[in-house]
Amino acid sequence: MIRTFRAARRERRAAPPGNGRRIRLDSVTPPLYRRRVQDMISARGLIKRYGDHTAVDGIDINVPKGQAFGFLGPNGAGKSTTMRMIGCVSPPTAGELRILGMDAATDGARIRARLGVVPQDDTLDTELNLLENLVIYARYFGIRYKVARERARELLDFVQLSDRAESKVEDLSGGMRRRLTIARSLINEPELVMLDEPTTGLDPQARHLVWERLFRLKQRGVTLVLTTHYMDEAEQLCDRLVVMDGGRIAAEGTPRQLIEAHVTREVVELRFNTEDHGTIAEKLDGTAQRVEVLPDRVLLYTDDGESTVAEVHGRGLQPASVLERRATLEDVFLRLTGRTLVD
Amino acid sequence: MTTVSENVESPSRATGSGALHAFEHWLLNYRRTWHGSVFSGFLLPLLFILGLGMAVGGYVNGSDAIGGADYVAFIAPGLLASTAFQIATGELTWPVYAATRWGSQYKAMQASPLTNDDILNGHLLYALFRAAVSAVVFFLVMAAFGLLDSPLAPLAILAAMLTALASIGAVYAISMSVKNESALSIVHRFGILPLTLFSAVFFPLDQLPLAIRPLAWISPVWHGVELSRASTLGVAPPWPWLAHLAVLVVWAVGGWMFARAALAKRLKV
Ligand SMILES: Nc1ncnc2c1ncn2[C@@H]1O[C@H](COP(=O)(O)OP(=O)(O)OP(=O)(O)O)[C@@H](O)[C@H]1O
Ligand SMILES: [Mg+2]
């Protein structure tokens, strides 16, 4: 499955997005106008304060139609707060926020009618069964009962919960609830789906199922915005990412761009049994472009892993284990948000 | 992905049907328990009329204090209104508290196109619906016991609904604002119960010391009870009926505004 995602992403990059007609339209549209029409989300200087604490500190975002856009960031970075503002549930303290071409401050209800939302904490009605949860949620959107029931059945199928349709939500496992929440977010056939940690708590199989479902949505042209703590998820699903830290955007780009811009090509991971990592750092100084000391291991960022390893041994150090690997998004994340850097 | 408009009944923003959709949510929960509530809706008036009416009635029937009326006929319209009040407000204490503190029903609604007003009105509508069911059932029991002495008697249902309408906003606002759930027991014990006891349901207001009477004058329950009684007994209420109505309307509008502010404060994120 992983390969499928990667292959598809490569294809998409090779060919311009959309069908032939859309491309022709684009080429005759002035850029400014296009930006307005095509951006599903456009935020300028977005700020959210709770009392004197600033949760989101002036961020700019553009998400074009059909893109899968990801937020990465440590706990408390302001990801969920941003998601709630985009979901038109939480009004921004300052800044401009336009969603689907409408103003979040004044058109909240109209925007929400066209959004799908998976909040970080499930908001299912545990007293009702799965089917009822979906149908009643559809009613909030003014969807007819008959259509609501049809879609509810389809969506339960979509997340492979059909056999539990009549169970109370109370009786579902956490991962099943998560899948139901995802199904519920699609009940109004949204053009933009906001997913706040969609796969947290899912077993690997369920996570792959969700990835595959999200990927299918993307192929249908649905715009996805998601937050995640799983770097593999970000790498699989997201066309573009921002790394948030302390309410600000620390970096932005495609997964590959981020890796190229913020870390070296290769990483050497060392583990030591005996010695204190603090003193190790000094001894490793100069073996790589950057040395990062984590509580359990030391990361050496280098463009040439082999010679770095040779240098480590040359200095007489005896790590318990040595691992040479390519740099990943996780390294970018640590680089940008970690606080144990020794440059 | 452009099929939304075809399958949507109405752009609910424009028609204001959002509150109805929120109401449907509470109705869906009610579906599981409605048998029980209709049954107790019959049982409650029956017990009051048989137990209290017949037994106490033996002592006070025809007494001057109640204008020479049959005691059962005197208390029944009062109970009709106060029961509607109790059912409606009872539906808005723990359930309202729970919906924002323990459960996540409101959070789910918030993410949908429903507005805060829709969420509020939907819940209030449900409380009124519950009150209406109980009022109609109570009225039927009264009819079965021959307690309706006036062709205007059906207006008592309206009076009961006005009593409920006048109280729900205030109770909702309190449930939405209280810091912890023990405050809700206090609302029940020192709000809802005394309002029922001192609002001339079981005895006429002039039986109370003059010093306490003003409490009844400002209570929505007293005004509703008097209008209800005037309807079924076919007598004039103590105040001009427009005055009774005016107090109820002030409570209804004021309560709704408080409820709205309390909800906005609670849902603010
Ligand atoms: N309703 C609120 N009231 C006060 N402070 C809040 C509120 N919601 C969030 N915050 C604060 O805002 C900051 C950002 O929180 P947020 O939930 O957006 O982080 P996050 O990036 O989603 O974190 P996580 O990865 O843990 O979900 C935190 O410091 C949090 O304490
Ligand atoms: Mg979060």
Automatic annotation (TrEMBL), chain B:
Subcellular location: Cell membrane; Membrane
Pfam families the record matches: ABC2_membrane
Transmembrane segments: 38-59, 71-97, 124-146, 152-174, 186-205, 241-263
InterPro entries in UniProt: ABC2_TM (IPR013525), ABC2_TM_bact-type (IPR047817), ABC_2_transport (IPR000412), Nod_factor_ABC_transporter (IPR051784)
Gene Ontology terms: biological process: response to antibiotic
Gene Ontology cellular component terms for the protein in this record: ATP-binding cassette (ABC) transporter complex
Keyword Transport: yes
Domain ABC transmembrane type-2: 36-266
Primary residence: membrane
UniProt GO MF annotations: ABC-type transporter activity
Membrane topology: Multi-pass membrane protein
Keywords from the named record: Antibiotic resistance, Cell membrane, Membrane, Transmembrane, Transmembrane helix, Transport
Keyword Ligase: no
Entries under PANTHER family matching the protein: NODULATION PROTEIN J (PTHR43229)
Family membership noted in the UniProt record: Belongs to the ABC-2 integral membrane protein family.
Protein name, entry field: Transport permease protein
Organism classification: Bacteria, Bacillati, Actinomycetota, Actinomycetes, Micromonosporales
